[in-house]
Write a structure and sequence with these properties.
alpha/beta, globular
Length: 256
């Protein structure tokens, strides 16, 4: 098995990503959940009009935000994911601009253009440790005054502690998709095994690196980049995060 670069991995995954995440059901759920983050702020009473979806994948969060009346720009490092996002937004009749950039490579012309940034779907785990500080700094630069940031990573401290190798098992119309980990010293191999329901020997295994960044790292970087009122949840319903039991970490913060 060859380990692919992150871009190569998601170029390959783009062919079956929507099947793997159950696009239609997930879009409905994301739209309902993100609505809570777009309401006027309890103190500042600001409305979200423009948003950047960083690590947009096949466009599900971008489409959810656009469905809620937000002007959205989507960014992803995978050219094929961007193409899939464009196809999905056109199919659902949502006008969204998508761009093939990593977070730190988004042009300066986008600086201070957004009221809201979301970066969901464990996007942060795909960013190498050396690039994480620049990524959080780029989030701050892209946001307008009092802009809001919402981003997500899996709770890898728990995953590693309990040796939780299986991420998910999905059965589609024609294929099984199994996501699982191999734990290394400084990173994790993220694997997807795809095989035909009627012929398990017809299979494909692809792998890439992900990085188990910690809660403490992101709290430190948010503070260093002048984010305030930082809140940490375990889901988009704003359930309080518990380091021992929560599978996910959602950070919600304001630019000072």
């Amino acid at each position: 098995m060859d380990r692919l670069s992150n871009k190569e991995f998601f170029n390959d995954v783009s062919q079956f990503y929507d099947e793997m995440i159950n696009f239609t059901q997930t879009l409905e759920r994301k739209t309902n959940n993100l609505k809570e983050f777009l309401s006027p702020h309890r103190v500042l009473q600001t409305n979200i009009r423009t948003a950047a979806d960083i690590g947009c994948g096949s466009g599900i969060d971008s489409i959810a935000l656009a469905s809620l009346g937000v002007d959205v720009s989507g960014f992803d490092s995978s050219k094929m994911m961007v193409k899939k996002a464009e196809e999905n937004s056109k199919r659902i009749n949502k006008k969204i601009n998508f761009y093939n950039y990593t977070a730190q490579n988004i042009p300066d012309s986008f600086n201070s253009k957004f009221d809201f940034i979301c970066s969901l779907g464990n996007t942060a785990a795909n960013i190498p440790p050396k690039d994480i500080p620049a990524t959080i700094n780029r989030f701050a630069e892209l946001l307008d005054e009092n802009g809001k940031l919402l981003f997500h990573i899996l709770n890898y401290e728990k995953i590693i502690r309990v040796n939780e190798r299986i991420v998910n098992i999905n059965k589609g119309e024609s294929d099984y998709l199994i996501r699982f980990y191999d734990f290394e010293k400084d990173f994790i191999n993220f694997n997807i095994l795809k095989f035909a329901v009627n012929n398990p020997k017809e299979r494909e295994l692809i792998s890439t690196k992900v990085y188990p960044h910690s809660l403490e790292l992101f709290l430190k970087l948010l503070e260093e980049n002048n984010f305030i009122n930082v809140e940490v949840y375990q889901d988009l319903k704003k359930t309080r995060f518990n380091s021992e039991t929560s599978n996910d970490i959602y950070f919600y913060a304001e630019k000072a």
